[in-house]
Amino acid sequence: MSTWKYDKTVEKWGVFEAEMPGKSEGNPFTDYTVRGTFKSKNETKTVDGFYDGNGTYRIRFMPSFEEAYTFCIKGSFSEETFEGSFTATAPSENNHGPVRVSHRYHLAYEDGKPYYSIGTTCYVWELQKEELQKKTLETLAESAFNKIRFCIFPKHYDYNLGEPISYPYEGTPMDSSVLTTENFMDYVGCPEGNNFDYKRFNVKHFQHIDKCIEKLMDMGIQADLIVMHAYDRWGFSEMSAECDDLYWKYLIARTSAFRNVWWSLANEYDLLTKKTTEDWERYASIICEKDVYGHLRSIHNCKPFYDYSRPWVTHCSIQRQDLYKSAELVNEWRERYKKPVILDEIAYEGNIQHGWGNISGKEMTRRFWEAYLRGGYPGHGETYLNKENILWWSHGGELHGESPERFLFLKRFMEETPAPGLRPMEGQWDEVAATVDEFPSRHKYYMFYYSFMRPSFREYYFDDETEYEVEVIDTWNMTVENRGKFKGKFKIELPGREYMAVRIRGEE
Amino acid sequence: MSTWKYDKTVEKWGVFEAEMPGKSEGNPFTDYTVRGTFKSKNETKTVDGFYDGNGTYRIRFMPSFEEAYTFCIKGSFSEETFEGSFTATAPSENNHGPVRVSHRYHLAYEDGKPYYSIGTTCYVWELQKEELQKKTLETLAESAFNKIRFCIFPKHYDYNLGEPISYPYEGTPMDSSVLTTENFMDYVGCPEGNNFDYKRFNVKHFQHIDKCIEKLMDMGIQADLIVMHAYDRWGFSEMSAECDDLYWKYLIARTSAFRNVWWSLANEYDLLTKKTTEDWERYASIICEKDVYGHLRSIHNCKPFYDYSRPWVTHCSIQRQDLYKSAELVNEWRERYKKPVILDEIAYEGNIQHGWGNISGKEMTRRFWEAYLRGGYPGHGETYLNKENILWWSHGGELHGESPERFLFLKRFMEETPAPGLRPMEGQWDEVAATVDEFPSRHKYYMFYYSFMRPSFREYYFDDETEYEVEVIDTWNMTVENRGKFKGKFKIELPGREYMAVRIRGEE
Predict the structure, then answer these.
(1) Which residues partner with A436 through β-bridges?
(2) A180 touches chain B (CB under 8 A)
(3) Which are the contacts of B285, defined by CB distance < 8 A and separation ≥ 6?
């Protein structure tokens, strides 16, 4: 028996990591297990460790309290028990803990700070060459995005026919030189030529993903991990249940101690035709058992929604189902599922040939404001053709669109919204009206959005007593005009342009 | 008995009119009737005449054949029988007869020429001062519009608080000087101060409307007469069943011989809260009985549609029910009702405060193209604020919007469409695809519309043999690029802009 005194500083909601020597014979991914129990005054948690190559095993733990911890780790590869202790210190300034569901429809960090989600999608940004990854992180740093959806497995699809920088398993892929934009759909699933061992992880692949999650964490960006998906030519979407479960457990053991992890069971689960509801429910129970931190969990559709009312689903992760209406339906989805509504795909700003990837920046921005006022959370993606064939949607890199700068403008209003966020309220039939999502509301705080309608004026009436400050917001041109204070019934002139909003705040 | 030889030329589908002296004592509108039977080789029709003031009775008849007619008219005001004959000559160049339903979903004039409806609405243009009426007709003459919706009764609503040039009944209206934009809704229905005799028509009002219908007829514009509506402060919307029926019969007797008349039983029938389905059905049977020419018949909704599947309804006269989707639903309505779908209100281009009256010219034009490709027929309206408070929607006058010139461009494509018109066909999920509405189709004629989507290219495949001519149409900038001829599977580059269409025509 060896006793450790872990002397690095671990902050609350940071990652404690222990490294242990062990056996590398046979298949360490399946032949050995390692588990550790972490105890403090306020919590006791038992978590799995994982094999990280070269005879090294690791275990990670995220403390949730500022206090002294002891731990005891036992691996089946050794007779030794690793024991030790450490102290979890106060979180650093930008560490607010994991994101939780707050007030049913909203989100907040564990320290109570509201989290107003503005997501984007770069499916396999982390599997591109290093320079491009760096560019993606630079772009994210300057953006409004505080969540990014990306895949653990590489992506095979139009504009995605090259090789990723690494594969998740040991082995060799099929020859990709045969692929063309015409024939790539003939190589979906597990075509001949692949030679992967689905029980032997490529630890370098996962070590790299760990680092990417950590970089995002340091930037305050949630890593919405897409664990499974169907855009596959290597058989990763068609593994046996045993291999799937092994993968889930390995990924959870490696990454669940990162506070910014969210679980997206799948991108477009309904395209994984070999998986059944029983499979998805089994993966969900693995998460519920193995992720002791209760990270957010959802599953994203192509066409039919998964049943978001299942208890393990923490929030809706919606792909729009209609070509014309997307964010406009947030009210209905809130009512139906009684959970936060996150619009993880409302089409992409861009100009590619595919129908999901060519709306304008104006339409994207419009959908964001619709979603926000209706008490949901919008997500972005971008697919502009370019010579380099680097599309933000899958590869990251630079943004070319007109909507992202408008999200910085929108974010300002999101952050000024009193917690927990907005909810739709009764308004005129033709306007999107919102107030603070409380019952009863303590705030005299109202927002109106006119979408592509262009009224030249509007009249408002809330009560006779309160003095209201009125701001007219041009959500596209990013201007705010303070129109002064009003009482009783009042009329506000508007410019008769599209995409206007009005914020009305009463003295409290 | 007196015998007439009518010696003016009456063309087929023109108006034959006979004038008879009669009694003016009592109430000639209720105390006397006049009927005439018109016979030719191919038809025999019996129609009502009407009292036209000053002791004069008239009867009108529209011959449907180029042949000799005899007639026999008998009025209860006289012992005389008026007999005579005339010859119906060939129709003049722009006279194609009344518009009929053609091939279930489409419309054609009685001579077989397809009628591609592009409507507009100017609710009470004919009750404005003369100069403005003249301006309206000039605007119409330069426009693409071939149908106009307007009311027989004056309109009381926001921007419509003044007096019409005439009232349909003898009597005096309430004092309109008390009305303001704030209080006008308190004077809806039949407020005090009105003193109308709902059994005694003001013949000048109707004589004027006859002339307006005739002017529109000469311009080739269909007069979609809105017979009843709820925007009323004179009691015209709340008359007794007896007075309603008297009105219907009077109007039909006066105007049904004009070939360009359509019957719109009501604008927003559901706002006429004192009328029941039984009432609407009774009016419909009066039309079916008294209008011997079978003019088109429909009824327009505010919210719930009337049951367009009723046998007397010749076409859907739809007001959109959703703020975001309107023309996009044409396919569904075609399937549900199996009748022509006419979108008589898909919101107004403009900038007024009301939610139905402030979309952009781009959005209006987009809705028009959506409707056209889906096999429906769009309608326009305009509500731009101006100093004179003259809004096209109600008063006519001049157009200020950006969409009307695009309708001239659209009309060109409509007119080039092989009869009977387009129908939606299976296409990509994200495109509006159309072909000629025939089963089986004899035409290799396809149109695609990309709405606000902006694909940079598209691939098409119809067959291996045919040579197809491809045109890329910018529906907003009104340009057509001929891209040449293609065979088999082919790819067409698109500019990545909104509002593009592609027309593909094969050799036949």
Answers:
(1) A422
(2) no
(3) B312
The architecture of the domain spanning A425-506 is Sandwich (2.60)
A229 SS3 class = strand
A468-484 in b/e form (b: 16+ CB < 10 A) is bebbbbbbbeeeeeeee
Structural contact between residues A507 and A444, judged by C-beta atoms closer than 8 angstroms:
yes
| C-beta atoms of B496 and A351 within 8 A | yes
- Fold entry, domain B2-89: Immunoglobulin-like (2.60.40)
CA-nearest residue to B491 within chain A is: A353
- For chain B, residues classed under CATH 2.60.40.3950 are 425-506
Residues of B in contact with A458 (CB under 8 A): 353
Rounded average pLDDT over B68-75: 95
pLDDT, one tens digit per residue, over A183-209 is 999 999 999 999 999 999 999 999 999
Q: Mean pLDDT over residues A263-275, rounded?
A: 97
Between residues 378 and 437 of chain B, which touch chain A (CB distance below 8 Å)?
385, 428-431
Measured in angstroms, the CA of B350 and the nearest CA of chain A are apart by 7
ipTM, two decimals, is: 0.91
What sign does the CA torsion over A170, A174, A179, A184 have? Answer: negative
Domain with CATH 2.60.40.10 in chain A: 2-89
Chain B residues with beta carbon closer than 8 angstroms to that of A383:
none
Q: Hey, is the C-beta of B502 within 8 angstroms of any chain A C-beta?
A: no
Check if CATH label 3.40.50.2300 holds for domain B99-416: no
Which chain B residues are Cβ-neighbours of A496 within 8 angstroms?
351, 358, 385
Where do you find CATH 3.20.20.80 in chain B?
99-416
List CB contacts (< 8 A) between A456 and chain B: 351-353, 358, 385
Q: Is the pLDDT of residue B9 over 90?
A: no
Please compute the mean of the pLDDT values over residues B396-420 and round it to a whole number. Answer: 97
Scanning B97-202, the segments in alpha helix (DSSP H) are: 130-141
